[in-house]
Amino acid sequence: SAGLDLVGVFLFAILTLMTLIANLVFVEEVIYIYRKIPSSKRSILIWINAAAPVIATTSCIGMWIPRSTMFTDFTAAVFFAIVIHKFLLMMIKECGGQKLFLRRFEKGRFKISTGPCCCCCLCLPRVRITRRTLLWLKLGTFQLAFFRPVLMFLSIVLWTNGNYKPYNLSPDGAAIWINCFIGILTIIALWPVGIMFQQVRTILNCKKIIPKFALYQFILILSQLQAAIINILAMQRIIPCVPPLSSSARGAYMIQQLLIVEMFLITLISRVVYRRRYDDLEPPEGTPEEGDHNEQTP
User: Fold this and answer.
1) Angle (CA) 245 249 252, round 5°
2) DSSP symbols for 222-247
3) Overall average pLDDT of the 82-104 stretch
4) If you count DSSP H runs as helices and E runs as strands, how many of each does the chain have, helices first?
5) Cβ-proximal residues to 218 (8 Å cutoff; 6+ apart), any chain
6) What pLDDT does residue 139 have?
């Protein structure tokens, strides 16, 4: 950033201000959650609401300190891997928790022919909703939250040894294999979220689950797919180099600057969607009032 002209300094200042505002909005949202939301939901909602500000912050750090880009990207990716798991847990929690969820859908079946894994396999049978299938869905998202930090640590170890170069996607390099493995794990993790959303989107419509899911999807697409596309364009030299910046460096700058603006907007929208207080769902038929009270009490 030492060679920035006046326009560049102004742009960096505006983007930094956006990041600061996003974090202040998030802090204010955390205060609201602690004051107004039951303790059983606080942690999950804070994690989900933190996704956009954290990505904006890591992008801002990477923008000002280009050498830190690999580490900031890793940090954002690990954080969002945890958010994917938390979003699944939030949908279950909004149905009253696991016990009430199973009671509510005890005669239901999960539609597993959904994206991103099996959206074209319409002939797949529906799976009964049981404690075991619910556990498998949780494990499906948890595996990414577990393996992503492990792979990040492995990448850093290989990088310090000179065996990992993020922009070297040749078969001889470690980056292509690690990225492919992460891609597979990510697709597997997104599948349970899609399955659960298909199951609860009608009953949780009163809690605006569709806008919440849309925000989650936007963060996913913008932070993962958009970044991958720009990186590919940079590696193919479609994004031209402008001395002293190489194509890869310009691509990284574009990703970071776009993400700051996008995550700033998502933070503001999330505040509107998540700040509203929604009534709890009616307990399923046959649920005693005391049991329901115990379920809702943190």
Assistant:
1) 145
2) IIIIHHHHHHHHHHTT-S--BTTB-H
3) 89
4) 10, 2
5) 262, 266
6) 94
Closest CA to 81 of 156, 175, 185, 210: 185
The continuous run of DSSP H or E covering 236 comes out as none
* Whole-number Å distance between alpha carbons of 91 and 88: 5
**Contacts of residue 114, Cβ cutoff 8 Å, sequence gap at least 6:** 191, 194, 195, 198
Residue 46, amino acid:
I
CA distance linking residue 63 with residue 257, whole number of Å: 7
Longest dimension (CA), the chain: 71
Mean pLDDT, residues 105-115:
77
Which token pair is 90? 């939030």
- Check pLDDT > 50 for residue 1: no
Tokens found for residue 156: 């850093």
* Alpha-carbon torsion (90, 92, 95, 96), positive or negative: negative
Residue type (1 letter), 295: E
